[in-house]
Amino acid sequence: MLLIAAVAVVVLGPERLPLAARALGVLIGRSRRYLDDLRSQVTEDLELGQLRAMKSQIESGVQEFAALADRGGSLARNAVTLLDADTSETPMAALPEHDQAVRRARLSRRATESWRANAPTTGAGDGHPPRRNRRHIGAAQPRPLRHAAARRRNRILMGIAR
Question: Which segments carry the region annotation Disordered (predicted)?
């Protein structure tokens, strides 16, 4: 580096050396900006290529899912038709599972109706128990802390009155 500077002083002379150094600095700055722009464009192109690849993968996945959904829908329709054919041959009342399900439904309906008839109401008649008063939640806090704000306010007011 020192050798290049010595040759530049000899060739250009001390009068033109500052102008040449300034021009060289401008050229180096332009080249750096150009290389930075080029590097950013290359990275954008690479990212764009990756995004396109991801898009194609997602689209293929969506198509596979749509095909599976169509196949599943046709299977469901076939199952429904088979079930309809089976139930037409055997009435539901003859099946023991049906009797038990009907009994459970009736018992749960009766239990719900009796609870609503005997439950305390909020006054709206909706059958739900009354809501809890939320003002009592602060009772878990110690009394001196609970009333500290009121005490401060009273002291301020007493000071103003004097």
Answer: 108-150
Calpha distance 129→153 (Å, rounded) = 38
Q: How many CB atoms lie within 10 A of CB 45?
A: 10
DSSP assignment string, 69-107: HHHHHHHHHHHHHHHHHHHHHS-GGGSHHHHHHHHHHHH
Does the pTM surpass 0.90? The reply is: no
Distance CA 85, CA 54 (A): 46
- Phi/psi region, residue 23 (left: phi>0; alpha: psi -120 to 50; beta: rest), is alpha
* CA dist list (Å): 43 to 29, 37, 68, 105, 138: 21, 10, 37, 65, 59
Segment 4-31, tens digit of pLDDT: 888 888 888 888 888 988 999 999 999 9
